[in-house]
Amino acid sequence: MASFERDHEDSNNQPLLRDHAHEQNKHQLSRKVWIESKKLWSIVGPAIFSRVSTYTMNIITQAFAGHLGDVELAAISIANTVIVGFNFGLLLGMASALETLCGQAFGAKRLHMLGIYMQRSWIVLFLFCFLLLPVYIFASPILKWLGQPDDVAEMSGVVAVWLIPLHFSFAFLFPVQRFLQSQLKNQVIAWVSLVGLLINVLTSWLFVYVLDWGVKGAAVALDISWWFLFFGLFGYTIFGGCPLTWSGFSIQAFSGLWEYTKLSVASGVMLCLENWYYRILILLTGHLENATLAVDALSV
């Protein structure tokens, strides 16, 4: 009789035990999701902010150019979106090869190789910047050949020449960004990007409104802002921010350049194809009636 009562009591308690275990599992799952989400957002949050900040610099430049006139806005839009954008996609893709190499080296505890890979990327991208330089120098005839209005093409050519310093900043900034990202130092990139954005607003106002440099001033403001991003991140790297992965400049960076170039070019081609579709859209807009206003509207 006592055995029967115990069995009956256990059978009544089993649903309660199952419910309790279910609640515990739910609580543990929620806690794990919260912990993993915090870890994820601590990485991707600063990365998102830094990308938005650098993209906002281009928007600010176009906004200031919009106050100068229709032709000026169209010229900044084409120079920044088509001329710079064409090279931006290629160089960004080439620098993305570092994501694989630095990630592997960091995981294998070959920490000193991260700095060498970054220097190797600087060399390759810097040389490719010279190969791409004619696109800036001959921007006006190229745009006229592609059917853009003469006044917009001429002004875009002037802006493109003044954006050459920006072009060379890509060769150094993109590798150091990936170098730091592979070490989960995204917060440093985010803070430097914020300061760079503020500098871009200040210099754009100073050069366009105060000194009245026109579209040239807007281009120079963009040059200064992007070079500040590089010097800020590089300064953090060499002044103690990465003691294990940066051991100074090394002659090893000049070894294996051909192999790295092949890997970089493959990465560059894959990424630049994704970036070029919008550039092509801007060029096609230049063939519409009243092309200046059409390009202005699309850029806005």
TrEMBL record:
UniProt keywords (A-Z) are:
Membrane, Transmembrane, Transmembrane helix
Which residue spans traverse the membrane? 40-61, 73-101, 122-143, 155-176, 188-211, 226-246
**Region entry Disordered: which residue ranges?**
1-24
**Xref: Pfam families:** MatE
Q: Which family does it belong to?
A: Belongs to the multi antimicrobial extrusion (MATE) (TC 2.A.66.1) family.
Q: What is this protein called?
A: Protein DETOXIFICATION 27-like
